């Protein structure tokens, strides 16, 4: 549905993006992840037809975003970083306005607006003037305008920015509910958000897409390490040497803390088969076990690793 | 059909932004107050003048009060409009840029020229609302005038004002599309319009044939015949060119000046 190849954008002498490439299948949610200033907004603005690219191609639903701009615009809904709201309008009249400039027929608008209001949880705010709305509600109105005309492709630039945790969860659920029916491209610099809502993630840094993959695969590929942390009391030294002999264990470290000890066991085992062997060995050794925790590298660590490597 | 739908949507949205803002009422109040004052002032001044002539035993039959009033009053009003009109057009695009709503318009399936045209229609409507009391004043004066005023002269004077105002608003729209600062847009439009207004005077200091071309472009020179009740195609064409140029330049600047 979205195909982007070697996209480049230069403002004067600054290179905003130098090589952006990815593709999004119909009905899929692709997360665009990168630090601030990485080129996320620039890429989205090019896709939405707001600015032209310096070189490279971007196609949406088979149409070039620059050459067939009008055609593309009919198929996309776009939420920029700052929701484009007319403050003096009521929520309902604003959505009516948007649906009409998106080319919807007069007869279809009322139903479309009602649906968008319902989906974004704005049904009780229809007659409220936008300038009186809180940040969270404004963001929802912004989302509502992006989906009111049921576009095939929805482009969302930092959709959860400035929301409180409850609102973030609601917006995420809304975005997830768009999948299947709509193709979604969303950007974020908040990692858990992307790993929770997206089917695939593109990591972008300094204007280049470094990698595109499923969140789980990214973690497995980039940091193939599992860590088990055990809080124990007793003869840890002999336990350590026995643990080290286990298949799949790379390293065991003893971190003393108060009366108990923490054992940190790194393994290259991708899955959690090792857990049962570990626990059995600890119990049989007569050492008292207080806690056993399995930690996996977070997307954050993957992201940091990737983006710092680049620099 | 879609074209008309979109045009109407833009027009309505824009008109709403004026009618829902206190700013419009301040501008309207200011305009109506000053225009009302001058209506009273010029009229009573003329009446006094006639009374004086009659006192001295002179003949008043040859004094065409009505056209004298039309001339003086419209000259005052048009100077007032030079100050008012840039204030009406200054927010047309500056607000869209500031609020980020330009991004919505520019990514919707509507052309820049349609947006500009719809916006211009809305400010022309705003101007027409401001103009209503002036029409009432004219009805009061010219219905009572003796000898009766020729109606075509009055209509032409109003048509001239309308074309002049639309031209200024169109240029003002272009200036407003250049930045996100309304005040800057006001000042620039005012300066630009004053220059275009007085091009015929300014052009005297430049050697011909450039001076001929410049004076031809003068807003004042093209407006003056309307006030005399003279309808010339060249004057209409010039105003229409100004209007078209404003729309065209706006379209271009929106295309080029995207952040």
Question: Which descriptors would you attach to this protein?
Answer:
heterodimer, A: 311 residues, alpha/beta, Rossmann fold, Alpha-Beta Plaits, six-stranded mixed beta sheet, four-stranded antiparallel beta sheet, 14 strands, elongated, B: 259 residues, mainly alpha, 12 helices, 0% strand
Structure description:
The complex is a heterodimer of chains A (311) and B (259). Helices cover 37% and strands 30% of the residues of chain A. Chain A is an alpha/beta fold and 311 residues long. Chain A folds into two domains: 2-213, P-loop containing nucleotide triphosphate hydrolases (Rossmann fold, 3-Layer(aba) Sandwich), CATH 3.40.50.300; 222-301, MTH889-like domain (Alpha-Beta Plaits, 2-Layer Sandwich). Chain A has a six-stranded mixed beta sheet, sandwiched between helices. Chain A has a four-stranded antiparallel beta sheet with strand order 2-1-4-5, covered by helices on one side. Chain A has a four-stranded antiparallel beta sheet with strand order 12-13-11-14, covered by helices on one side. In chain A, β7, α6 (165-178) and β8 form a beta-alpha-beta unit. In chain A, α3 (91-101) packs across α4 (106-119), α4 (106-119) crosses α5 and α8 packs across α11. The model of chain B has no long low-confidence stretch (mean pLDDT 88). The relative contact order of chain B is 0.13. Chain B contains twelve helices and no strands. Helix content of chain B is 82%, strand content 0%. Chain B has helices spanning 2-19, 22-55, 65-89, 91-99, 101-106, 112-144, 151-176, 182-197, 199-203, 210-217, 219-227, 233-256. In chain B, α2 (22-55) packs antiparallel against α3. Chain B is globular and about 75 Å long. Chain B has one domain (2-256). By secondary structure, chain B is mainly α.
């Amino acid at each position: 549905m979205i195909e982007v190849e070697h996209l480049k954008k230069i403002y004067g002498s600054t290179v905003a993006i130098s090589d952006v490439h990815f593709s999004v299948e119909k009905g899929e949610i692709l997360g665009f992840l990168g630090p601030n200033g990485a080129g996320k907004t620039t890429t989205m603005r090019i896709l939405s037809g707001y600015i032209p690219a310096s070189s490279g191609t971007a196609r949406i639903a088979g149409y070039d975003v620059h050459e067939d701009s009008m055609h593309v615009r009919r198929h996309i809904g776009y939420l920029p970083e700052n929701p484009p709201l007319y403050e003096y309008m009521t929520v309902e009249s604003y959505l009516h306005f948007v649906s009409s400039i998106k080319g919807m027929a007069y007869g279809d608008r009322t139903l479309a607006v009602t649906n968008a209001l319902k989906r974004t949880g704005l049904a009780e705010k229809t007659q409220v003037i936008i300038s009186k709305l809180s940040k969270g509600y404004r963001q929802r109105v912004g989302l509502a305008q992006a989906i009111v005309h049921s576009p095939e492709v929805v482009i969302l630039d930092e959709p959860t920015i400035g929301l409180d945790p409850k609102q973030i969860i609601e917006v995420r659920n809304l975005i997830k509910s768009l999948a299947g029916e709509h193709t979604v491209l969303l950007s974020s610099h908040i990692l858990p958000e992307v790993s929770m809502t997206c089917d695939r993630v593109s990591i972008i840094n300094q204007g280049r897409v470094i990698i595109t993959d499923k969140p789980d695969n990214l973690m497995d590929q980039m940091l193939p390490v599992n860590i088990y942390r055990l809080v124990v009391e007793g003869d840890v030294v002999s336990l350590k040497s026995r643990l080290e002999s286990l298949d799949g264990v790379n390293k065991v470290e003893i971190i003393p803390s108060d009366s108990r000890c923490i054992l940190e066991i790194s393994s290259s085992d991708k899955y959690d088969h090792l857990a049962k062997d570990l626990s059995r060995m600890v119990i049989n050794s007569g050492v008292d076990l207080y806690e056993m925790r399995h930690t996996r590298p977070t997307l954050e660590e993957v992201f940091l690793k990737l983006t710092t490597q680049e620099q | 059909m879609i074209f008309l739908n979109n045009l109407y949507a833009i027009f309505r949205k824009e008109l709403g932004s004026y009618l829902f803002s206190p700013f419009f009422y301040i501008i309207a109040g200011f305009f109506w107050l000053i225009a009302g004052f001058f209506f009273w002032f010029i009229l009573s001044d003329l009446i006094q003048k006639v009374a004086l002539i009659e006192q001295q035993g002179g003949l008043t039959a040859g004094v065409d009060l009505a056209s004298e009033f039309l001339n003086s009053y419209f000259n005052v009003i048009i100077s007032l409009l030079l100050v008012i009109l840039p204030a009406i057009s200054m927010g047309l695009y500056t607000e869209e840029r500031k609020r980020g709503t330009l991004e919505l318009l520019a990514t919707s399936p509507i052309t820049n020229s349609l947006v500009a045209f719809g916006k211009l229609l809305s400010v022309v409507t705003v101007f027409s609302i401001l103009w209503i009391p002036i029409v009432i004043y004219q009805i009061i004066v010219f219905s009572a005038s003796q000898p009766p005023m020729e109606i075509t002269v009055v209509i032409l004077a109003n048509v001239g004002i309308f074309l002049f105002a639309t031209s200024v608003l169109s240029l003002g729209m272009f200036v407003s599309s250049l930045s996100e600062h309304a005040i800057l847009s006001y000042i620039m439009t005012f300066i630009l319009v004053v220059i275009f207004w007085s091009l015929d005077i300014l052009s005297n200091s430049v050697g011909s044939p450039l001076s001929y071309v410049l004076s031809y472009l003068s807003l004042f020179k093209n407006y003056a015949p309307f006030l005399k009740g003279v309808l010339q195609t060249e004057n209409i064409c010039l105003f229409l060119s100004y209007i078209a140029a404003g729309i065209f330049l706006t379209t271009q600047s929106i295309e080029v000046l995207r952040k």
